Structures are given as structure tokens and as C-alpha cells.
Amino acid sequence: MVMPTARYIAHDKLMPWLLGLAEGRRVLAPVREGGKTLFLPLREDSRLDLRGLADDSAKAALLPRCEPLLEFHYAKTAGVPSRTTLEVREILPGQETFLFGVRPCDARGFTVFDRVYDAGTRRDIYYCSRRDKTLVAAIACADPAETCFCNRVGGDPGGSDGADLLFTPVEGGFTVEAVTERGGAFLREQALEEADGKAEEAREVREAVRRAMPEGPSLDGAPDEVLRLFDDGAFWESVAAKCLSCGVCSYLCPTCYCFNMTDESNGNDGVRVRTWDNCMSFQFTLEGSGHNPRNGKAQRMRNRIGHKFSYYPKLHDGNLACVGCGRCIANCPASMDVRAIVIQARSRVLDKEEYANE
Amino acid sequence: MSDSYRSNLYLPDMATIQEVIEETQNIKTFRVTLNNPDAMRSFRFEPGQVGQLSVFGVGESTFVINSPPSRMDYLQFSVMRVGELTERLHKLRPGDQIGVRAPLGNCFPYKAMKGKDIVFVGGGIGMAPLRTLLLYMLDNREDYGKITLLYGARSPSDMAFSYELPDWLGRPDMTTELTVDNGAPGWERHIGLIPNVLKEMAPSSKDAFAVTCGPPIMIRFTIEALHSLGFEDDRIITTLEKRMKCGVGICGRCNIGTKYVCKDGPVFTNAQLRRQPNEM
Amino acid sequence: MSVTEGKELRIIGFLCNWCSYAGADTAGVGRFAQPTDLRIVRLPCTGRINPLFIVRAFMNGADGVLVSGCHPRDCHYSEGNFYARRRLETLKALLPVIGVDPGRFEYTWVSASEGQRWRSVVASFTEQVHALGSMPRFMSGTSLDLCLRPAVQPRVF
Amino acid sequence: MASSLDELKTAIRKALPGLDVVIAWTAGPDALSHAPLFITEEADVARIEWDPRCSQNLAGYLPGLRGKKAGIVAKGCDVRSIVELLQEKLIDREDVVIFGLDCQGAVDARSARAALGSSRGVRDVAIDGASVCFSVNGEPRFFSPGEVLQSKCFGCAGADAGLCDHFAGERGLPPQFGNPPESTLERLEAMDMEERLRFWETQMSRCIRCYACRSACPLCVCQDHCAAQSREPHWVDQTDHPREKLMFQAIHALHTAGRCTECGECERACPMGLPVMTLKRALNRRIKDVFDYQAGIDPNQTPPLFEFREVETNIKEREW
Questions:
Q1: Which residue of A270, A279, A285 is in closest CB contact with B56?
Q2: A34 touches chain D (CB under 8 A)
Q3: Cβ(A297)–Cβ(A245) under 8 Å?
Q4: Which residues in chain A have their CB less than 8 angstroms from residue D240's CB?
Q5: Secondary structure (DSSP) of B233-272
Q6: Which of A76, A77, A80, A88 to mutate: most B Cβ within 10 Å?
């Protein structure tokens, strides 16, 4: 299929266009509310905020904070008061969604989910049907924040991995380019003007932001270092010392996908819900017997860093489970910095090995 | 693979409890059948695979299917009462409805074990996963060499499967030893910790596999004892337990390094475990 | 009783076993006419009451909550109601901030012999709650309409 | 403040040999908030920072360090948390060395970021009476305290130097910033009951249940065993309903009633910017009125809900 040519939409046309799309489907976009910019269903009175990275990641579009997996109903059997019947039904999601305004890092985060939730024979139908019904429109970055580091984890501030459409800010508006065939088919149906010369400008904008990214050493290629440090308790104790064991980093992370499943019921009716879970929580691995393989926050931090920079890449062709959005850094109540931990781990291993070689 | 046949990974099959056996004061065995007769008829699993049992309104938990695949009248699960879900399971009676997501996980390498001597070492509820393999091997007796079983529990009254023990003890084609930490009047078998009794028994490690399951501390010392008897790490097989939710390697809590116990396990050789970080 | 003629409201009573529950019993035995909106939860002592019981009751859809125990200095356990008094006084500051009218919650002391007093406490508290009407409910699914479909909505509020 | 910082460093260098660890602040990954620094070697002392970006209350780390000799650098408000921990015997006085500081106000990183547009280029922050000055790429930018400081700074009682083992800086009067910005509690009080419920419904719908409010709270000592994640008792369910999330806030507020010193960590930690200290403020106000008690003032006092009077002079019980 031939991709449609790039299109252009002016700033003042954007909101009406999005609201038009919102007829018949859910449009999620970064909206200013309560002093925060969050991905919320777009309404006429919404204050669209495209200034930078939203405060939450858009992962809830594909993995809601809480989603019902199935519902169950107990009922008394007529005539046999001691017997109950049980009915269980799955609840499948079905909403068409246009997810607008994610940044390239967030869109790339979806590819981290895809490898786990849509893995050949193991397809999570809740995730997959949301993914199938969601068109992802990313906006290339123009103004990276101090905490941005997508360039250090294999990402690109002007990239389009995981997205169907790529918007790029240009003078007066955005260019729109199709990334996937699905995006192309969608774009063809939209009455948007041709981008013409603006496509070239867009390319320059993306080049410029690549140059504007804060520099630093790459964080990939660390899987073995993290593993070799596994038994270095003192190291993990020291990096985890200030951690509060809250869930800010996990819940704002566009790649954290771990979940919990719980039954919640009221009398005879209930739902089995899947909710975001957090590997820094004590309960995450607490077993029925009271034994907890990750009893302390140092062990939990080790698994968190291990998962993102070692285990996941080893299982998935070297791709990190981190896209460098920096939300965990910007929002950590104890100012933890995941970049620094990986760098420290690496230099700790180097130091040790040098010492061993001497 | 086990999980591929399901279109919805999280939707259990409805099942009926057919029989409840009170094994000990805190262990009950449930024999269940799937409500859909076709599903029950076509149900296939291999020894060592697990299932998630659902009590709707409480949740799910993982248990090994401890009946052997060679006996498919029902699926059997033995449950020790330790928490919210097992507490509720223990209150269920024949006829009650539960959910079953099974089979999940890998199985014992029973094909690779063919022609070899087998040493089973089970502690407490850890006997349950061994039972499925043991019965499977007894049902295919000619495929395997000498079979030795050492089963230990805290006290005689904590021994599950007591109704099967006379058969196991009496069979000429296997050697069975029982031990308890604390004896009781009438107890005529071993009194002592499993690893110590194992060392006394000293089964030969030549052409043999050892299969062990039990509390973490028992496994640790049993593996030491097996080493001292000359068992190599790739001939020591254990089956692990972790907190699990999804059962299909997604939810992220049961991993040891890159291995998910629910999907890549629960059965591992000690050699495999030693290649993973030490996070038990 | 005018208040019982209209729609019944959901009023939860947390009563101590030794005084107020017995007092309610006395009122019942004495066949004192009372409104029927109150649903009683019996507890060993008002000192057993976690103020969160009351918050949870409102969250679960109660329109009013009444706590009653032994008179001060008459506590079966000597001092349970003294602690309860402090806790419940503190709780009074929380409820209105989350939108529960202060008139929807009261605590008082009724002894086992005070059947008549129990009757008047119940009558006047019920009347007070009826004057406020039913508690405004959270709209379901504000943030995630998917999660709580009407058929299976846990604890309709 | 350079001189206070030097004094502080000298005091820590001197005390460090007798301590297992000293907790102070150092430059963090974000230019608007400094990060905790756990000092075990003298070389780390040079990294200590002290300016209005030292917002985090470090007292919450102390219960976890029990059994060790720990030094802690504390602003006046942080000292109140330490006092409360001492009162409840959650830490041992003889094991804690308090390095007090004269604080002129602490930056609220969130509002500062909003006011500045970005944290990039921020080099220094200073408070001079009625204005807060950020030096951004060498250019001074001035804001009023209400725009960029934490709301707790407006009721600052100053540092009680008497409780500190060391004190760096001047033991002067606490900063006076004039009119505080309108608080959520005041806004709520102008609403009717149903509007208040709707207010919380909207606010809590944003809550992501990360429990940072709890994890950051220096007085939440249950932590790993919090009621929020317990199935038995089932205080809150795991659905995304705002009611359940508000219930958790009620739990937090009531568990800290008579103990909360309004250090503001719960609100500072909240990644969704929710006004979760409001409930605690309301309880504190009543506790002040009824029991004439303020948490974190006197280490020898007993929190009001841990005791009682047979005759409560300020409680007016209802007549029936």
C-alpha cells in the first residue's frame, strides 16, 4: 500500500477536527485539569495542552488503571436453599479510540507492551482488542525537558515507533504523516490539506530536536552488568536507601505493565478486576505463607532495574523496558534518578573487575 | 503450548467439586470435573503442570494438578489452608462451583527420565506435585528403573495421602520411607529431618534423577544432601512456588531473573536455577 | 410518627453490647413505638468503634449513623467510651469536609434501663436525618465507566 | 545562606565519626528540588546543599534506621515530625542527632515549574523577605512567596532550636509572608455538602493509587502492612472508583489524627497534585479547638487520641 502524502493542520483547525473525530469514538488527548496535563476524553470545554510531555503516560488507553475482566453472579437455586448457582461472564472492551498527542517515547512504550501482551500464541485479548481499536497519533517533540533521555535508551524525540500517525510541529500548525497502513487509511479519509513544503520543515524540526536532546551515555547494553551486581547487596541497599517504596515511578511509567487481579463483590454480584500493580510494593511478591522473596526495598529495586535494563532486554532482542520519558525522575518524591542507578551499576561492575584484574 | 488454546487467557472453565478429602487438619484434597463434558474429555496435561483455581468473589490461586494424566476421571488439587483463598476453598463441599484455568506452566521431564532410577523426596504439602509424577510412573512402571520415595511431614497426623501410603509401602516395585519431625504413639517409621533420613537411605545417584519439593528450607538442605550422594545439578529437579496472578508470564511478580515460574516453570532443574539470580 | 410515613432511609446504629444494645432491647420489650430506619450493629464497646466504620458506612450508602454506648464512668471496660468520645469528636471534623452533613452523625449514651431515652434518641435522630433527606451519591463511573457496570456495580453509592 | 551551609557542614564533619549515617540534601536530578543524601563518609559532606529547594522532609527515614546512630538535617517543620516520632517512641532520642537549620521557606517544585515554565537553567534560589528569586541562566526571576513556596510556609512557627543538637544559622523569627494563598479547606467551606462531595469525586478520579501520599508520610509507620492493600479486613476495594480512593484518604487522615504535623509531604509527593492534606488540616483544627493540642511541639506530651479526660471541658455533648 502506498502511504498518503503528508498533510497539514493549522492550530486553529486542530480542536474542531479532534472534536469531529470524537463523534463516534473516544478521543483521548492531553488535557489541562487541576494543574496537571493528563490524557482524558476530549470534550468541547477541554483545554488541550500540547506544550510538552503530559504528566501521565497514555498507557491507560491500552491498559486501564482498573479494568473488569469478568463478572460473576451467584443466585439461590429455586427450591434448594442450600444450593447456589454461579454464572461467570467475560467483559470484553470494545471502544474505538483515537489517542492523540502522545510523545514518541510514549508511543514507543506501546511496543514494549506488544512484545509481552501480544506474543504469538499468548495473546491477551483485553490488551489486543484495545490495541486493535486504538489509533495512536504521536507528536514529535520540540522542546525536551531536563529529565528527558529517550536518546539514551534507543529512542528518538522525532520517532514514530508504536504510533500510527506522526504529527510534527511546524510554523502555524502540524504536519501529519502516516506511519502504519492503518494510519494511512485513516489519513486518506481525512479532509486535511496537503503539507507540501511543510513536510521538509517538519524533517528539519525533527532533526533539530535530536540535536537539542540532553546528552549522556547510552543506557542500553547494561543487561549483564546489572546481573553481575545481583548479589552485591551493599550496592542495592545504597541505591534504594532514599526510595519510599511508593508507586509513582511504576504508575507514571509508559512501559511498566505489571498488574494485579482481584475479585471485588457486593453480595452475590462481583467483578474480577485487573489493576496496575507496582513492583516496589511489599505485597507484590508476598506469598500466602508469609514468605516474601523480595522482602526489602533494595531487593525490589534490584528487580525493578533488573527487569527494565536486563531481564526484559534479554528476552526481547535487546530492547529495554524503558523509553526515557523521565516521568519517574521528574515525579519521584525522593528525587531518585533511574539513569544514575544504571550508570552507577555499570561503573561499579567496571571498578570491581578492574580491582579483580589488578 | 498450554496457554495457546485459550482465546481469553483469564477466563476460567467452570468446574464442579466432586469430592473433598480431608487429608490433615489443614490440607484438603479436591477432586473436580469441568462442567463442559467436551472440555473434560479433551483435557490434556502433563505431570507437574499447574492450574489456577478460582473462588469467585475471593480470587485465584495456583495449585499443581496432583492426579496423574493417566487417570482422567477428575482433576485433583490438594490445598493447604494458609490464606484468604485457601480458607474459602476449605469451606467448599461437593457440588460447589469453582473456576479452573489449566493446564499452565511446564512439566516434569518425564520423557528424559525414562529408563532411569527415580528418587522422590517430598516434604509436607510438597508431596502433592510429586504424587502426580509418581502415579504416572507407577502407571507406566516398565518405563522407569528403581523408584524410591522419601516422604516427610511434621507429625504423623500431618501426612497427606495417608490412604495411599499402605499401597506405596507395600508395593514390591518401589521403596518407600516415611519420616516425621515429631513422633507420636504408634509411629514406627523414621523420626528425623528429611535431609538426614535421605543421607541414611543413601539412594544411588548412578543413572538416577532426584525430584524434590517442600518448604524452601527443606529443599535447600535436601539439595545439599543430594549433592553429597553424588547427584548432579541437572539431575535434581524441583518444582517452585511463588505468588502468581496471571499464570501466563505477563503480570510480572513470579520471575526469578528472566524466568517466570508460572510460564517457564514451576519445574526447574537445580542446574537451571543456578544459572538464574538467587532470589528464592 | 410522621417520619416513618415517608420513604425509609438507611441509618446505621453502632451500639455497645452492655448498655445501649440492652437499652434498645428494653425499648423493644416496652413496645415503645420507634421509627424503623435504624439498622443496628452490636459491638462489645464503643471503644471498639474505629471511626472509619462510620466513614465506610457513609461511603457504602448510609444516610445517617448513630453511635450509642454506656454513660461516661459506666463503661463495662471502665474507659472504652472515654476514648470513643475523643475519637468521635475528632471524626466530626472530617465528615463535613468530605460532604457528609454534620447532622447525619451523632453519638450518645443510653443505659440498659433507659428504654424511653433510647426511643427518643432514635426518634429525634431519625427525624433529623429525614430532614436532610438521602445522602448525595457518588455518580458511578466518573473516572472509569467501564469498571463498574450497573449490573455488577459493587456497593451502589 | 552560604554561612549556614558552612556551619552545617562543619557540625556534620565533627559528628560523623560517632554516627552510622547522616541524612541531608544534595543536588537532585531536577533543578527545582534537592534530593536526600545519605552520608556515611566524610567525602560526601562536600555534596550537601542547603537552600529553599530542600523541600523534602527527611524525618520519614528515621524509623527505618532504628537501631543505628543517625544524624538528620531538619528544617523547623521537619523537627516537628521528629518530635512526633519521639513522642510515639518510634525512634530513640539517644540514637538521633538533629542538625537544625534556620529556614526562610521551601519551594514547591510543582508550582515553581509552572511559574517558570521549565526547570531548565535554574541555578540558584534565594528568599528575601517578600520575594523569591530564581536565578535562571544567570538572569534573576522574581516571584511572590504565594506563587512558588509550599503552603505550609505561611503558618511557619520557625525552628525550635532547643530541640536540636546543633543549629546552623540565625535563631531569628520565622519568616512572615503575609496573606497565604486560599486553602482548599477554605474553598470547601464555601460550598454546600453536595458540592463538597462532587469536589472530591472530581479530585479523586485523578488519583492513580500510587500511595505516594502514604509512603512519603513520616508518620505512616505501617507502610508495608497498610490497610489500603489488605484483603482482610477489606477496607477499600481495588476498583478505580473515586469513593474508594477518598476512603483511603479518610483512613490516612484518621490514622494520623492528632499526630499529623502538616509537614505537607503527602501533597508534595502526589504526582496528580491532589489536595490530600485538606482532611488532615480539618482534623488538626478541631483537635486544637477541642483538646488544645498541636502535634510535634513537645516530645513529652501524649497525643490526644492516646489518652482521655473523664470530664472533657471543651466537648459539648448533645442533649436528647
A1: A270
A2: yes
A3: yes
A4: 64-66, 275
A5: GGGEEEE-----SSSSS-S-SSEETTEETTTT-SEEEHHH
A6: A88
Q: Is the pLDDT of residue B3 over 60?
A: no
Beta-carbon contacts of A350 under 8 Å, excluding residues fewer than 6 positions away, are none
Q: Is the pLDDT of residue A351 over 90?
A: no
For A266, the domain range is 223-357
Residue ending a domain, choose from A179, A212, A245? A212
Domains of chain B, earliest start first: 13-104 (2.40.30.10), 117-239 (3.40.50.80)
Sheet strands side by side (includes D139-143): D122-128, D131-136, D139-143
Q: Do D206 and A64 touch (CB under 8 A)?
A: no
Contacts of C120 in chain D (CB under 8 A): 320
Answer yes or no: is pLDDT of A254 > 90. Answer: yes
Task: Establish whether the linkage from the previous residue to B266 is cis, with ω within 30° of 0.
Answer: yes
- Positions in chain D short of pLDDT 50: 1
Over residues C9-28, the pLDDT tens digits come to 999 999 999 999 999 999 99
Domains of chain C: 9-152 (3.40.50)
Which run of H or of E encompasses B213? strand B208-213
CB-CB: which of A146, A238, A252 is closest to D120? A146
B84 touches chain D (CB under 8 A): yes
Question: What is the least distance, in Å, from the CA of A70 to any CA of chain B?
Answer: 7
Looking at residue A122, what is its pLDDT? 86
**Neighbouring chains of D at 3+ CB pairs within 8 Å?**
A, B, C
C148 reaches A (C-beta below 8 A): yes
Q: How many domains does chain A have?
A: 2
Chain D, 219-248: which have a CB under 8 Å from a chain B CB?
231-232
Return the closest-CA partner of residue D47 out of D31, D35, D60, D59.
D35
pLDDT tens for C69-127 read: 999 999 999 999 999 999 999 999 999 999 999 999 999 999 999 999 999 999 999 99
Q: Does residue A152 sit in helix, strand or coil? A: helix
Q: pLDDT-based confidence at C5, cuts 50/70/90? A: low
Confidence of residue C3 (pLDDT cuts 50, 70, 90): very low
Let me know if residue A217 belongs to a domain: no
**C154 to D320: CB separation less than 8 angstroms, yes or no:** no
- Determine, for residues C99 and D291 on separate chains, whether the beta-carbon distance falls below 8 Å: no
Separation CA A161–CA A155 (nearest Å):
9
Beta partners for residue A72, in sequence order = A88, A270
Measured between alpha carbons, how far is A53 from A276 in angstroms, rounded to an integer?
21
| Same-domain pairing of A175 and A237 | no
Whether A238 and A110 share a structural domain: no
Q: pTM for the whole thing? A: 0.93
Contact residues on chain D for B84, CB-CB shorter than 8 A: 231-232
Q: How far is CA C38 from the centre of its chain?
A: 8
For residue D36, list chain A residues with Cβ-Cβ distance below 8 A. Answer: 241-242, 334-335
A32 pLDDT band, cuts 50/70/90, is very high
Nearest chain A residue (CA) to D241 = A66
Mark which residues 85-114 of D lie under 8 Å from A by CB: 110, 114
The answer to whether residue B38 scores a pLDDT higher than 80 is: yes
Residue C137 has pLDDT above 70, yes or no: yes
Residue closest to A311 by CA, chosen among B269, B274, B260, B267: B260
- Half-sphere exposure (CA, 13 Å, Cβ side) for D66? 12
Residue A306: what pLDDT?
A: 93
Task: Pick the more confident residue, A225 or B203.
Answer: B203
User: ipTM score of the complex?
Assistant: 0.91
A342 and A290 co-located in one domain: yes
Given A212, A244, A265, the domain boundary residue is A212
Contact B57 A258 (CB under 8 A): no
Is C145's pLDDT higher than 70?
no
